[in-house]
Amino acid sequence: MEKVLDVKDLHVSFDLHAGEVRAVRGVDFHLEKGETLAIVGESGSGKSVTTKALMRLIPNPPGRIKQGQILFDGRDLARLPEKEMEKIRGKEMSMIFQDPMTSLNPTMKIGKQIMEPLIKHQKLSKQEAHKRAAELLVLVGLQNPEMRMKQFPHQFSGGQRQRIVIAIALACNPKVLIADEPTTALDVTIQAQILELMKELQKKIDTAIIFITHDLGVVANVADRVAVMYGGQIVETGTVDEIFYDPRHPYTWGLLSSMPSLDTDNETELRAIPGTPPDLINPPKGDAFALRSEYALAIDFEQEPPLYQVSDTHYVKSWLLHEQAPAVEPPLMVKELRREMPGNYAKPVLAGEGI
Amino acid sequence: MEKLLEIKGLKQYFNEGKPNMVKAVDDISFDIYKGETLGLVGESGCGKSTTGRTMIRLYDATDGQVLFNGEDVHGKKSRKELMQFNRKMQMIFQDPYASLNPRLKVADIIAEGIDIHGLAKSKEDRMNKVYELLQTVGLNREHANRYPHEFSGGQRQRLGIARALAVEPDFIIADEPISALDVSIQAQVVNLMKKLQKEKGLTYLFIAHDLSMVKYISDRIGVMYFGKLVELAPSDVLYKNPLHPYTKSLLSAIPLPDPDYERSRTRKVYSPDVHQYTVDDHVQMREVAPGHFVYCSEKEFAEYKKTDETTL
């Protein structure tokens, strides 16, 4: 597979009065052509900051990319001058945000907003851009494009607005699309429509998608691979099957068992993850999740765990995979879904350089 | 089972008589039993929140009755009667950031109801009550002197619950109490609500659009569509054997955390045209199986009965 994006040892910090907030602390991942990578984790885990760093949308000051590389098309986006970055943003990489109410300009007609990237990046004439914008509206499922283009955002429903945002994001056939909680503000039925639309368009233009969400149902639906983030680090990555059917990190276990499935009966208590996310001004020594984990070992409070590899695609950052670690029982809800993955190695090995 | 609330033909119209009239709640009837949790689901704008708000008298009903312990909630009431009623019914809101007064200390937010109803004998008694409530919802007494902005979303929702519990209500309307919270925090709040229900024998109306959470917390679930209640059934029955086409479509749209299931799930689309109702169809709630009500015509009723028997 062809890598479109390769992120290496990314660190992002915010310099505040209280000190340096280390929001992203050494993240490695890559994105293959046409695939969907889901990033999950609770608020403050660094998932949005990571993707904003890819687009270079971290406000500076107070934020800065402290260290690391973002390789895209043979160039390092972390070091690209802003002028060059403007040519990539919205053209080769674009982004959809959570709230369709605020990501459109309320004082500008929809047609003009869709035409903007076409004129700026594709260098289309006004007439051509107008024609293409109408096509895009039909593509995302809005009827009557000529009339719709003359309307303002408030004349559309939430689902329709998200469709327009998608049309703008995909106007220039980007190689990478970042979707930050694109369906969280929408109803289930509308959410289903938007997810179907995104998958259909992905096939048509072969875009790779980074999908940020905390809804694990949505993850199971859209993702090819999943990265689980905690405290500014990726603690587990794998294919969607590996994460749901053979998760290894206690935080992933916690996430999976805090949501009831439709089979969970009313008597079983949900396994809430106790406590609060770690303070990233003074990140805890050792494993950041240790304080909230019932599976924490003594070494978790001393030393940061290395990255272990369970299969060609499955990586876990936890001391539990060390050969001397005691065997532990994952929570019931995880055990019920667990199955043997065909690609697993005989036993976990320490991961080499680069994922 | 004893009925705590009876809702009879409740209607809530906005802008009545004007061209922009909205029938937000259009002639719905259901009962809520003592000690149960009734879930109310549906898409935005279907009238589920309006139903809750009308029940607690935040709106004056256009028509219909809400009987609480046999007494009508709406209609003329003396101040004293209102006070008593307000104590028995409380509400928890969706947005824990907007529902707490940022200028009041936590102790004053929680004790507001206690003060209004004169439930504390002395200052000391009042503070003890506050401390006890904070502990009940999993916070500690040091939190009493802080302001809302010092708390996280999950903690604020706990404060909202403590405030509702302060006046010792029988019935709590929870309007999307977990939608604004993170997954791991949602579980904490839901577990807390279930625990409190067991300890205090509370009755809940749980309004939400997250269907897996609703199924988990509710004994029975009502499904709303465009101001109408279209199906009402015990939660297992509703999920295993949905009869109304809208319920089927809603259930088929929920993504579940199971990749294999997701690969095979197909979404059913609902269009109200399938019913082909005519004027003399007498569309109304009909009981297909004991406790399982569906909004349907006489003809559909016969069909639903048949499918219900074959699936069981």
TrEMBL record, chain A:
Q: Where in the cell is it found?
A: Cell membrane
Q: Which GO terms describe its biological process?
A: peptide transport
Q: What GO molecular functions are on record for this protein?
A: ATP binding; ATP hydrolysis activity
How does the protein associate with the membrane? Peripheral membrane protein
Its keywords, alphabetically, are: ATP-binding, Cell membrane, Membrane, Nucleotide-binding, Transport
Entry keyword Repressor: no
One Gene Ontology cellular component annotation held by this UniProt entry: plasma membrane
Locate the ABC transporter domain: which residues?
5-256
Question: According to the lineage, what is the superkingdom?
Answer: Bacteria
**Does the record's keyword annotation contain Transport?**
yes
Record family assignment: Belongs to the ABC transporter superfamily.
Name recorded for this polypeptide: ABC transporter ATP-binding protein
Q: Source species, please?
A: Domibacillus enclensis
UniProtKB/TrEMBL annotation, chain B:
State if Transport is listed as a keyword: yes
The answer to whether keyword Transport applies is yes
Arranged from A to Z, the UniProt key words for this protein are: ATP-binding, Nucleotide-binding, Transport
Matching PROSITE patterns, A to Z? ABC_TRANSPORTER_1, ABC_TRANSPORTER_2
A GO molecular function annotation here is:
ATP hydrolysis activity
Signal peptide as annotated in the record: none
Question: Which family does the UniProt entry place this protein in?
Answer: Belongs to the ABC transporter superfamily.
Q: Which PANTHER family match?
A: D,D-DIPEPTIDE TRANSPORT ATP-BINDING PROTEIN DDPF-RELATED, TRANSPORT ATP-BINDING PROTEIN
Entry protein name: Oligopeptide transport system ATP-binding protein
Please name the source species: Domibacillus enclensis
Which taxonomic lineage is given here?
Answer: Bacteria, Bacillati, Bacillota, Bacilli, Bacillales
